[in-house]
Amino acid sequence: MVISNFILKIIALIFMTIDHVGVFLPSSPLQFTFRVLGKIALPIFIYTTLEGCKKTKDIKKYMLRLGVMSILMYIAIVIAQLVLYFNNGYLLVFQNTFFTLLNLVFIYYLFFVNKNKNKRRMVILPILIFIGSYIFFLLRINGISEFISSIFVDGLTTMYALEAPIMFVGALLGIYIYEEIVRKRLNNDETLVNEFLCSKKAQLSRNIIMCLSIALVSLIMYSFTYENIPSFTFGNACVYNTYFIICFPFILLYNGKRGFNNKIVNGAFYLYYPLHIGIIALIFILIGGF
Question: N or C: which end of the chain has fewer CB within 10 A?
Answer without folding.
Answer: N
